[in-house]
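# step 3/5: fold
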Amino acid sequence: MDTSQSPPPPGYTTASPSSSMMTAIPENKLNQPQFSSPLAARFSPQRSLQDHRPLSSSRSPGARNTGGSISSGSSPGQFSTPPGPPIFSSPLRPAAVPFQTSPASPQPVAFSSGSTLPTSSPPNFTNGMPQLPLQHTSGVEESVESPYVLFSAHKVLKRKKQANISSLGFGALVSPGKEVTPGPPVVQRDSHRCRNCGAYPNLFSEVLIGSGQWQCVICKKLNTSDGEYIAARKEDLRHWPELSNSVIDYVQSGNRRPLYVPVSDSRMSAPVFLVIDECLDEAHLQHLQGSLHAFVDSLPQNIRIGIITYGRTVSIYDFSEGSMASADVLPGGNSPSGESLKTLIYGTGIYLSPLHASLPVAHTIFSSLRPYRLNLPEAYRDRCLAAAVEVAISIIQGPSADMSRGIIKRPGGNSRILACVGGPNTYGPGSVPSLSSHPNYPYMEKTAMKWMEHLGEEAHRNNIIVDILCAGTCPVKVPVLQPLAKSSGGVLLLHDDFGEAFGVNLQRASMRAAGSHGLFEIRCSDDILVTQVIGPGEEAPADAHETFKNDSSFCIQMHSVEETQSFSLSMETKGDIKNNFVYFQFAVRYWNVYQADISRVITVRLPTVDSVSQYLRSIQEDVVAVLIAKRTLLHAKSAANAIDMRITVDERVKDIASRFGLQLPKSKLLRFPKELSTLPEILFHLRRGPLLGSIVGHEDERSVLRNLFLNASYELSLRMLSPRCLMHREGGTFEELPSYDLTMQSNAAVVLDHGTDIFIWMVCNSCRSDSDLSVRFSWNLSYESSGETEL
């Protein structure tokens, strides 16, 4: 027999590009895992809001291209970026590793739990050859954890009674769109699937090297590989990337979208529609005009742009008039009629135009905007935002004339609507009264939220993402606007004004790389039950994914697939575990920005243990804290709920101490387990900080932070929970300090990194006796710095 190593199988490549992408009730019911989405749940009266993590502009610069034009990476955005990271001297804790947003409403999803299936007996002969014994594909003995998945512990307790302690819990944070360097191996072909449960082959699968059959780690059934995995010896199985790596990307090029016109980068062919509030005072308008001028100057010349302004009416600007700014005006009191939209779409006006042909007109339009003239407070002004978004969606749907060629085109990637908002939607569809003291306000707010969610879903069906960027001092009524952004796959952000931070985020929003048509599947060993999922999506309908005979997977439909998203999974054991390992497989399918079909498969194996002390030593405290915080914040939908959740956090800490702590000698007091020594401090920050506390001034701000947190990545979530305190030293270096008030007595500059904001405490001889001055100074800087963080 030839013992030489076989060459890599055809259809494989070793290139490893980074990804282009890349929120629930405490009760845990058997066979009914709960999915909590940022969207209003259609299957449950309660809701949970999603985050959207900040819009991502960071991309791995060294992403390599595979398969011709197929790439998972994205080109760097054309906008100003934050300064490089500071130099740290002797940090006290390691940098944060792999972390989601606001309550919208949990969506309970019923799935039948996978029953234990008997393992098929392998035949003695295949194609006349004697069958060889099952072989581990890579001889892996130690458990493998992926950078895309962070578990609350590296081990799983075997006894159900010990494992299912709800105060501590067991779970994972999964970031399917996370970018790492180097990226996972790429295979340009369809993957094999278990015909029984739908799982994928992986490095833990056992293979019959004589016949190429492989055993599924989830259901233990044997599956054929159509002879592909036949090998002379088990070491040769390592030539198949899926059998030697915990993460693998299956890539299929081509495009399945009807009427698609391919371009080098689909983001360049997808239009950007600006929807601008025209009810602004002069000071805010001047800042907005400066940001808009800089924004269009930063865009690629071949991108198509549209401009709509709204107040009591909707003005759609026409680019067919050369250098002159002209607009068609529609009433904003109702949704635009079909006849009006037909006139716009099939008329002679050009409402989406390549920037190279319309840049002077765009500047003219921005310069022609005038401040609000009536003597009304900001909150009382009529704004028909929803009607304006409806018009923008209809125009993007087309057909829309391409100015340079005069042909009908459909955008290749996700189109974007960027709403520049200075106040609440108080007129027309989806509107609410200006005053929350209105006797019918609760009902009207609920109706408006449902209408906005429906509008966002309509945008999502048409591959349109709606980002809402708010600024100014007028409350915008976040609960009403949030469903529009969330259900379309976009985000809602608040800014102090329309200045530099707003402008930078506007640029980043337009160039944010996002995958579409995402489907996230979760499969676990039969011993494990997924009880709750918090993340950016909703329960996938049955026809949205392929079904298998005994498929017990948990499927989530994602509105967009991006790097800074993550899912929070809560799990339990169904009974006492008898096996030495349990397996978890996470798969996400999506279209990247180049319209390639990506299937990313992540497989993790964890050992099981009987010893509670071994389990406690394997716990990752930061991950546990983030998981607890996400489960807690899901129910903090109002200020009153937040107060109740603080009490819940206190009770949780007490319960952990009573179950895992050691009793002090000659005392009834319990010592908190030393393996979880930092957990109480992080939960204290959760209880006291802006997520559950009252540090941030307005409920709009707290609501946005909660929405952001529930879908945010692990790193951002941890910083929002437990700020990182740094002291500036001579020479431009920083030293990390505990996040205690006493650090502010220092005579050096102290920086508090809160993830979404940067706070700076500066003390000098002239202001040493006036600490309030330092606080105000740091507060102003924090808003400036927050614009430098990623969207």
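# step 4/5: annotate
The chain has 16 helices and 36 strands.
# step 5/5: archive (pending)
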